[in-house]
Structure formats: structure tokens, C-alpha cells
Design a protein that fits this description.
Oligomer: single chain
Number of strands: 0
Strand content: under 5%
CATH architecture of the domain at 5-79: Orthogonal Bundle
Structural class: mainly alpha
Organism: Amycolatopsis jiangsuensis
Order of helices and strands: HHHHHH
InterPro entries: Cro/C1-type_HTH, Lambda_DNA-bd_dom_sf
Protein name: Transcriptional regulator with XRE-family HTH domain
Distance between the termini: 65 Å
CATH superfamily of the domain at 5-79: lambda repressor-like DNA-binding domains
GO molecular function, one term: DNA binding
Largest sheet: none
Length: about 150
């Protein structure tokens, strides 16, 4: 999976700004960058020059080296993810579908959200096995309950 550097930088800048509960307007004024341009940088639509990036980092009180280190960790973590091309997935799905592994096997059926973030890099997130779910739907549809309202 290819990650654009400008998108990774933008994600980290937005993350730093929102963690500080600061607005785009606040940062744009402090960094002397137009609000629209800063927004485009955060969304990964514009690639900021090194001077502009240094100014934004200074406004966020975030050392440029820390930002670049975190971005490098994010990019390297995402580059190691293997993605199967769509053509291969479609060809495989037309063929026979393999049976699922029984419960308690070593494979993963899915994942679940972790209750807390360990560290602040995407590489710190770990996949944990999902609990087995009961797929039986148990629903009873009855008449609606009438509620009376008394006005005083």
C-alpha cells in the first residue's frame, strides 16, 4: 500500500493540533500561513515546503524532528501491510471458497478495537483476535406499548 508523504505529514499535523484542542485559525495565525492552505496541508492535498512545515511545527510547539520521526514510523508501518490486488480477490472469490477454521484455531477471523492506545505511532497498534459471536438473531416483535401522559 503506497502512502503519500504529504498525507502522512498532514495526518500528523492534524493529530497534533486536535490533541491540543486548537483551531485551524489559531495555528494559521501563529504560523503566518493562510487558513485554506493549512487545511489543504492537513488533508494531504498540498505539500508544504520545509520553511512552511517548520513554521507550522513551531506554532504547534512540536519539534520538526519529532514530526518527521513519527511520520517515518507511520509510513514504514503502512508500507509493510500487504494488500491483495482487486483482480486477485475477484478471481479467488469465483473459485471455491475455503471453509473457516474452527473456533480456537491459530488464525484470526477478525479483530477488535483495543481499549487504549499504546504509544503514539500507528506501528504501536496490535491486532487482537475478535471474540466469537453468536449469529442467531433473536428478536420478538410485539404490539407497541401505550404510554399515557397526564397534564396537570
Amino acid at each position: 500500500m503506497t502512502v503519500l508523504l504529504r498525507e502522512a505529514i498532514g495526518d500528523r499535523l492534524r493529530h497534533a493540533r486536535t490533541n491540543q484542542r486548537r483551531t485551524l485559525r489559531d495555528i494559521s495565525r501563529a504560523a503566518r500561513v493562510s487558513l485554506g492552505y493549512l487545511s489543504e496541508v492537513e488533508r494531504g492535498q498540498k505539500e508544504a515546503s520545509s520553511e512552511l512545515l517548520a513554521s507550522i511545527c513551531e506554532a504547534l510547539e512540536l519539534p520538526l524532528g519529532d514530526l518527521l520521526h513519527k511520520v517515518a514510523a507511520d509510513v514504514s508501518a503502512l508500507d509493510t501491510v500487504e494488500v491483495t490486488p482487486v483482480e486477485e480477490v475477484e478471481a479467488t472469490s469465483r473459485e471455491s471458497v475455503p471453509e473457516r477454521e474452527p473456533a480456537g484455531s491459530a488464525g484470526f477471523e477478525g479483530g477488535r478495537l483495543v481499549s487504549e492506545l499504546v504509544g503514539d505511532d500507528l506501528s504501536d497498534l496490535r491486532l487482537q483476535p475478535a471474540p466469537r459471536m453468536n449469529t442467531t438473531l433473536r428478536t420478538t416483535i410485539g404490539a407497541p406499548k401505550l404510554a399515557s401522559t397526564i397534564a396537570a
